[in-house]
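User: Hi! I'm working on a homework problem where we have to compare a predicted structure to a textbook description. Could you give me the structure for the chain below?
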Amino acid sequence: MNYTLYILKSLSTGNLYIGQTNNFARRLKQHEDDRSYSTKGRGPWSVMKTIQFDSRSEAMSLETKLNKMKNPARILAYLERHYK
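Assistant: Happy to help. Predicted structure tokens:
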């Protein structure tokens, strides 16, 4: 099964949200409809980047690594270098 790591940017706050899912369209709709606790009230959202993986563990590993970086500029620079 394919998993998607995704990065969203809040158009209201400018903050990034990093997540992973096996159904990106459904998950994006949840974020946009304020049905996700972690992003509720911070939309609307813009999709910055999506990366496909063959396994959930690969997607979760990169998600964890990116979330530890904290700095949005550093996250985007890392992705630009490694996931064009």
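For your comparison, note the following. The helical segments are 24-32, 56-69, 72-82. The domain at 3-82 is CATH 3.40.1440.10 (GIY-YIG endonuclease). Good luck with the assignment!
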